[in-house]
Amino acid sequence: MKNRIKEFRAKYDLTQEDLARKVGVRRETIIYLEQNKYNPSLNLAHDIAKALKTTIDELFDFRD
Amino acid sequence: MKNDKFRLIIMAILTVMVLAVAALYAFEVIGEKETNLGAIIIPVIVVLFMVFFIRKRYKDVKEGMPMEDERSKKVLMQASAASFQFSLYWLLAVSLFEPFFARVLFDVQKLDASQTVGGGIAGMAIFFFIFWLYYDKKGKLI
């Protein structure tokens, strides 16, 4: 599943570490998410969308 | 966060205890003809894995990150499941090819029960370490 986390993170000038702290995960998880190597749970997707002031639909591409 | 630090300290204490017991056993049996290598190899593998794991987690906790999150829990779960499945085949292989292992590893005709069980557990520990590394770095998590 593709996502636009990196794009939104850059928009709000957040580092991977900042985002990881905001959503309460390890930095590695954010790295794997940005590389599309990990599909998050619905809860985590919601938290990330909230932290990046967007919606899950905007952030994740469910077409794959 | 405080809970994570406490867990890390407990892990470190357990690792030191395993290492101490293995060292005591090694001092006791070194030089004996029928040394149970499994009893030395298993703790060494466990200690190496724990040192690697604790170092990694300590860095995260120091930086204010959680020690565990949903991804690391999934890695642990899938590595455990895969190593369990593989260790069944390994235990079967150990029991079927026991005379071969006895000759090659210990230079004896037959393994005693503790050597067979030790070999089985050592295999499980190695499988777990390999699968954990695989799922943490490359594996597709469900």
From TrEMBL, chain A:
GO terms for molecular function: DNA binding. InterPro entries: Cro/C1-type_HTH, Lambda_DNA-bd_dom_sf. Keywords: DNA-binding. PANTHER family: TRACRIPTIONAL REGULATORY PROTEIN-RELATED-RELATED, TRANSCRIPTIONAL REGULATOR. Residues 5-59 form the HTH cro/C1-type domain. This is Transcriptional regulator. It comes from the Bacteria. It holds the Pfam family HTH_3.
